[in-house]
C-alpha cells in the first residue's frame, strides 16, 4: 500500500522532472516557476470539471481525458509566451534567470490566489477513477494511482519518441550539446529553445492534471514540488531521461516507504543524505553518457 | 611577440578578375571587447576556387572564420555570399544563404550517432535523409553510422564534420584548420577528399591552415594573415615556399 502511494508521487515527479530536465539540459535555465505550470494544469483541470458539471453533466465521465489535453495546451501556450517575453532575454545570465523565474512564480501564485481564491479546490473525479482494484485479498490499489501511472508511462514514451525519433528531437539534442555549433549547421536555435521550453511547461501542465486526482489544488500546490523535482533532475544526471526515471522512482519510493515507518521530516532527511552521498561519489548523476568530449 | 618579425606592407587582395565573386568580404572588423583582432579585412573568392588563409596561432584565422559564420559578431564591414549580403544575420540564416562551416576542433555532437550528426546539417534541405553521395565520399562514416560521434577517432570526426557541413549543399565551405591534431596519413585522405568535393560540386572552399604541404595540395591561391591583416598573397603556381614558411615559423 505504502509502496503504491510512492508510485503516485513517482508519477508526478517524473512528469515534472521530465519537463525540467529538458529545459535545464538544453538551455541551462533553472526554471523556478516550473511548479506554477503544474498549478496551471491543475487549475485548468478543475475549471474543466466545473464547466462539465455546470453545462453538460452527461459529459462528466469523459471530461477528464479532455481536461488533460486542455491542461497541456494551456501550459504549453503560457510557457511559449513566457519564453518569448522573458526567458530569451536572459539566456546569458543564469543567475538573473533564477531570480526572474522565482519572481515569476510569486507573481503567478498571487494571480492564482486572486483568480481562484486561497482555498484549495478539487476537481470532481469521474466515477471510473474512484475506488480501488483488489488483485488479492487485503491489497487495495487505488484506481486513480493506476491511472496516473499509466498516463505517466504514455507521456514518457511520447517524449522519448519525440526526442529520439523525430526531426525536432534531433534539433533539440543538437542544441543541447552545442548551441553555437547547432546554429552553425543551420538549426534555428531560438525557435528550438521556445518550443522546448513550451513543451517542458506543457508536460508540467499534464503533471498538474494528474495531480488533481491525488490531492486538491491551491495557489501554492506546485511550489511544494519544485525542490524535490530539482533533486530528481540533479540526482538522475541532467540530460539523461533514463536517469530521471530511476532517480524519480528511488526518491519517491524512499520517501513514501520511510514516511510509513518514521516521521515525514526524518524520511526527508534520510533521502537527502542518501542523495548527497551518492552525488559525492558520482557527481554527474546516476546515469551519464560516456563519450569523448 | 618577438621584435625581429619582418612586416611587409599590408596588402588588400581584390583579384578574381573574371566572374562574380562567390564570397566577398569588405572591410571586416572584429573585436573582442575593446581589442580589435581583425582590422578591416577585404578579400573575395571566385566560384570553384579554393582559397587558403595561412598564419601562425593567434593571428586571427579562427576569429575571422567565426565572424564569417556569425558565431561571434563583427563590428563593421560586409560579407556577402553569391551577391547576397549576410552580415548581421544569425548563423542559422547564414547557412540557409549557402555558407557552411567546419570549425577548429571539429565540434561534432558527441552523443549523437554519426548518421544523426550528418542529419543535423540537412536543416536547409527539403530532403531530410542523408544523400548517398556523402557516404560515397566518406565510406568510413557509412561503416560507423550507428556509433556515437564522440567515440570516433580524431580523423573520423574531422570527416564527419566535413560531411555535416556538406549536407547543407553549401556554395561556400569554410574549413578552420582541418589538419590540426590529425595523423599524417589521414591528412592525405582529407586533401584527397577535398579535391574530390571540388570536382563533384560547384563549391568555393576557404581553408585556414598552418601546414604548407597540405595547403599546396588543395589551394589555388594562398593568403597570409598576420595580426589581423593580410601581408602576402600568392597563386599556388608561383608560390614562394620559403617566404611563406618564414611567415609561419614562430
Q: For the largest sheet of chain A, list the strands in their spatial order.
A: 1-2
What's the number of structural domains of chain B? 1
Determine the mean pLDDT of chain B.
87
Largest sheet of chain B: 6 strands, mixed
Which range best describes the helical content of chain A: under 10%, 10-25%, 25-40%, 40-55%, 55-70% or over 70%? Answer: over 70%
List the keywords:
heterodimer, A: 293 residues, mainly alpha, two-stranded antiparallel ribbon, 11 helices, globular, B: 250 residues, alpha/beta, Rossmann fold, six-stranded mixed sheet, four-stranded antiparallel sheet, disordered N terminus
Q: Please, could you describe this protein's structure?
A:
The complex is a heterodimer of chains A (293) and B (250). Chain A is mainly α. Chain A has one domain (2-224). Chain A is 72% helix and 1% strand. Chain A has 11 helices and 2 strands, in the order ααααββααααααα. Chain A has a two-stranded antiparallel sheet. In chain A, helix 2 (34-55) runs parallel beside helix 4 (94-116), helix 5 (143-165) packs antiparallel against helix 8 (189-211) and helix 9 packs across helix 10. Chain B has a single domain (23-248), classed as Rossmann fold (3-Layer(aba) Sandwich), CATH 3.40.50. In chain B, helix 3 (114-120) runs parallel beside helix 6 and helix 7 runs parallel beside helix 8 (212-218). In chain B, strand 9 (221-226) and strand 10 (229-235) form a beta hairpin. Chain B is α/β, with parallel strands linked by helices and 250 residues long. Mean pLDDT of chain B is 87; it is low at 1-9. Chain B is globular. Chain B has helices spanning 61-69, 91-96, 114-120, 132-137, 139-143, 154-166, 184-200, 212-218, 241-248, and strands spanning 23-32, 35-45, 50-54, 76-81, 84-85, 99-102, 172-176, 204-209, 221-226, 229-235. The longest helix of chain B has 17 residues, at 184-200. The interface between A and B is medium-sized, with 22 and 31 residues.
Amino acid at each position: 500500500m505504502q509502496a503504491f502511494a510512492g508510485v503516485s508521487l513517482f508519477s508526478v515527479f517524473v512528469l515534472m522532472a521530465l519537463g525540467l530536465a529538458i529545459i535545464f539540459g538544453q538551455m541551462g535555465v533553472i526554471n523556478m516557476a516550473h511548479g506554477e505550470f503544474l498549478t496551471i494544469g491543475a487549475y485548468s483541470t478543475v475549471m474543466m470539471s466545473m464547466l462539465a458539471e455546470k453545462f453538460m453533466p452527461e459529459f462528466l465521465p469523459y471530461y477528464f481525458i479532455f481536461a488533460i489535453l486542455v491542461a497541456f495546451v494551456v501550459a504549453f501556450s503560457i510557457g511559449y509566451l513566457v519564453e518569448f517575453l522573458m526567458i530569451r532575454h536572459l539566456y546569458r545570465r543564469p543567475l538573473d534567470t533564477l531570480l526572474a523565474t522565482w519572481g515569476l512564480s510569486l507573481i503567478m501564485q498571487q494571480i492564482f490566489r486572486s483568480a481562484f481564491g486561497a482555498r484549495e479546490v478539487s476537481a470532481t473525479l469521474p466515477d471510473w477513477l474512484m475506488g480501488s482494484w483488489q488483485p488479492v485479498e487485503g491489497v487495495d490499489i487505488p484506481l486513480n494511482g493506476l491511472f496516473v501511472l499509466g498516463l505517466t508511462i504514455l507521456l514518457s514514451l511520447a517524449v522519448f519518441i519525440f526526442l529520439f525519433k523525430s526531426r525536432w528531437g534531433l534539433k533539440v539534442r543538437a542544441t543541447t550539446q552545442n548551441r553555437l555549433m547547432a546554429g552553425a549547421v543551420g538549426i534555428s536555435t531560438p525557435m528550438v529553445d521556445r518550443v522546448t521550453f513550451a513543451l517542458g511547461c506543457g508536460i508540467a501542465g499534464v503533471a498538474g492534471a494528474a495531480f488533481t486526482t491525488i490531492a486538491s489544488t491551491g495557489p501554492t500546490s506546485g511550489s511544494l514540488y519544485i525542490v524535490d523535482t530539482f533533486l530528481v533532475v540533479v540526482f538522475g544526471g541532467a540530460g539523461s531521461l533514463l536517469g530521471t526515471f530511476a532517480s524519480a522512482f528511488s526518491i519517491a519510493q524512499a520517501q513514501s516507504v520511510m514516511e510509513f515507518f518514521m516521521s515525514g521530516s526524518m524520511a526527508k532527511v534520510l533521502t537527502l543524505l542518501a542523495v548527497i552521498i551518492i552525488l559525492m561519489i558520482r557527481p554527474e548523476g546516476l546515469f551519464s553518457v560516456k563519450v569523448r568530449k | 611577440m618577438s621584435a625581429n618579425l619582418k612586416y611587409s606592407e599590408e596588402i588588400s587582395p581584390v583579384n578574381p578578375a573574371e566572374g562574380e565573386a562567390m564570397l566577398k568580404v569588405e572591410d571586416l572588423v572584429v573585436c573582442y571587447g575593446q581589442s580589435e583582432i581583425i582590422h578591416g579585412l577585404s578579400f573575395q573568392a571566385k566560384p570553384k576556387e579554393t582559397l587558403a588563409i595561412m598564419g601562425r596561432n593567434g593571428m586571427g584565422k579562427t576569429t575571422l572564420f567565426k565572424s564569417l559564420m556569425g558565431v561571434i559578431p563583427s563590428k563593421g564591414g560586409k560579407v556577402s555570399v553569391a551577391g547576397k549580403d549576410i552580415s548581421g544575420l544569425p548563423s542559422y540564416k547564414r547557412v540557409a544563404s549557402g555558407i557552411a562551416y567546419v570549425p577548429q576542433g571539429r565540434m561534432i555532437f558527441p552523443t549523437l550517432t554519426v548518421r544523426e550528426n550528418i542529419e543535423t546539417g540537412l536543416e536547409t534541405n527539403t530532403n531530410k535523409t542523408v544523400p548517398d553521395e556523402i557516404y560515397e565520399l566518406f565510406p568510413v562514416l557509412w561503416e560507423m553510422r550507428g556509433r556515437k560521434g564522440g567515440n570516433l577517432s580524431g580523423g573520423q570526426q574531422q570527416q564527419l564534420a566535413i560531411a555535416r557541413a556538406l549536407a547543407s549543399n553549401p556554395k561556400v565551405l569554410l574549413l578552420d584548420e582541418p589538419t590540426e591534431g590529425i595523423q599524417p596519413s589521414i591528412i592525405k585522405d582529407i586533401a584527397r577528399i577535398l579535391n574530390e568535393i571540388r570536382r563533384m560540386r560547384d563549391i568555393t572552399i576557404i581553408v585556414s591552415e598552418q601546414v604548407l604541404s597540405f595547403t599546396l595540395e588543395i589551394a589555388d591561391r594562398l593568403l597570409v594573415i598576420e595580426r589581423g591583416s593580410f601581408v602576402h598573397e600568392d597563386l599556388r603556381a608561383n608560390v614562394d615556399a620559403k617566404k611563406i614558411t618564414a611567415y609561419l615559423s614562430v
